[in-house]
Automatic annotation (TrEMBL):
Entry GO MF terms: transmembrane transporter activity
Residue ranges constituting the Major facilitator superfamily (MFS) profile domain according to the UniProt record: 13-400
TM regions (residue ranges): 15-38, 50-72, 84-109, 171-191, 212-233, 253-276, 355-372, 378-396
SUPFAM superfamilies in UniProt: MFS general substrate transporter
Subcellular location(s) of the protein: Cell membrane
Pfam families: MFS_1
Entry protein name: Major facilitator superfamily transporter
Higher taxonomy: Bacteria, Bacillati, Bacillota, Bacilli, Lactobacillales
InterPro entries: MFS, MFS_dom, MFS_trans_sf, Tet-R_TetA/multi-R_MdtG-like
Keywords: Cell membrane, Membrane, Transmembrane, Transmembrane helix, Transport
Any one of the GO CC terms: plasma membrane
Native species: Ligilactobacillus salitolerans
Membrane topology value: Multi-pass membrane protein
Organism superkingdom: Bacteria
Length: 400
């Protein structure tokens, strides 16, 4: 084992931020599988109202994140990434803990809206390491840092579901708050940033970011694709525990089973992402992206007919493999079509589109589930995937 004194500062930062990313990923995902069940305890709601509130509670975090993130990004250029990391971790410590004390559904939605405004720990951690790591180590460093967030996001739903099933829905929010205290302390004592303020310059608007991009239609197609991928992937989140409860006929530890079902796609994505990335290098990103979208559509459609939790879990596991061929590949396509001086801005716009998708998907799903039935959400998701497939095919057809 390498002694700490032999590590470069960027390596010390990376290990500290890995722990912070893990805590953030685990805490933020801990409450997602049973969020609708928690909403149900805050009042006597008819089905349509319950699904609507569950959708609002889930998507409100991403709504405020999409609005506020560019402002925090500008502030980070002036103050550095470490203050933004502390702002995010301390802010989420407070909002997550208070969420556990929610007495009504609007308090819950409001606190999650505020939580989204203070989020951004993982993005700032990635940005800090990307700005410090030597170029020859960047791939490995960023990959290592990513495993922290992904690992937390896999463990969070399962652990949170088990805790909620045994001790109640409020406890995971308190644990989330405790994890963010850990992230705050690790960041404060373990991260040392050599920050140089970015000088404000003209031509930094959205139009300027596209200067030098030869295939603008491809980049825009990837923006739309990222939005639709997030919308499709997150559409089930507001209703997953309600649908699992329906499949289990209200018997058993619904929160824990929901957590497992929620985590399965992430496990598959973690296993398949690197291999599919290598495959895209050999056969081309376009083929992998189109194949992933086609596979997604073929997997979401039969979910409409699911009668058992086991079949739902198996299908969602394979959806995770399809996901591994989607988001990383869209980012690869964007990086290949964007000049170096515009990459950071293009990727920041892409993050905004992802956040918008994370708002649209759950709200659409809540509306469909409330008016029709939980199963029709999968038909809606299939339609989103088909639209996405059409957009990508059109973009590449224009390129001929």
């Amino acid at each position: 084992m390498v002694h700490t004194k032999q590590l470069a500062q960027w390596q010390k930062n990376m290990y500290a931020l890995w722990l912070g990313n893990f805590a953030t990923g685990a805490g933020a995902s801990m409450s997602l599988p049973f969020l609708p069940l928690f909403v149900a305890t805050l009042g006597h709601f008819p089905k349509w109202e319950l699904t609507l509130y569950a959708g609002l509670a889930f998507s409100s975090t991403f709504l405020s994140q999409a609005i506020v993130s560019p402002l925090w990004g500008k502030l980070a250029d002036r103050t550095g990434r470490k203050p933004m990391l502390l702002r995010a971790s301390i802010g989420m410590t407070i909002t997550a803990t208070l969420t556990g004390f929610s007495t009504n559904v609007w308090m819950l939605i409001g606190l999650r809206l505020i939580q989204g405004a203070f989020s951004g720990y993982i993005n700032n951690a990635n940005a800090l390491i990307a700005s410090e790591v030597p170029r020859q180590h960047s791939g490995k460093a960023m990959g290592t840092l990513t495993t922290g967030a992904v690992g937390g996001q896999l463990i969070g739903p399962i652990f949170g579901g088990a805790i909620a099933g045994a001790f109640g829905y409020r406890i995971p929010f308190f644990i989330f708050g405790g994890l963010m205290v850990v992230a705050s302390l690790v960041t404060f004592f373990g991260v040392k940033e050599n920050f140089k303020p970015v000088k404000a310059a003209g031509g930094q608007g959205m139009r300027a970011a596209f200067v030098g991009i030869k295939k603008v239609h491809i980049v825009w197609a990837m923006f739309i694709s990222s939005m639709l991928i997030q919308a499709a992937t997150n559409s089930i989140n507001p209703i997953i525990s309600l649908f699992v409860r329906q499949l289990m006929h209200g018997r058993g530890n619904v929160a824990f089973v929901s957590g497992v079902v929620a985590a399965l796609p992430g496990i598959a994505t973690l296993l398949a992402a690197s291999r599919l990335g290598q495959l895209s290098d050999h056969i081309g990103a376009q083929k992998v992206l189109l194949s992933g979208l086609a596979l997604s559509g073929l997997l979401f459609f039969p979910m409409y007919f699911v009668q058992t939790v086991v079949v739902l879990g198996v299908l969602r596991f394979f959806v995770g493999i399809a996901d591994a061929a989607l988001m990383p590949v869209t980012q690869t396509v964007m990086s290949l079509n964007t000049p170096p001086q515009a990459v950071s801005r293009i990727f920041s716009y892409n993050q905004s589109f992802q956040a918008i998708g994370s708002v649209i998907g759950p709200l659409l799903a809540s509306g469909v589930a409330g008016i029709l039935d939980y199963r029709y959400v999968f038909l809606m998701t299939t339609l989103l995937v088909l639209i996405n497939l059409g957009v990508v095919i059109w973009a590449y057809h224009q390129d001929r």
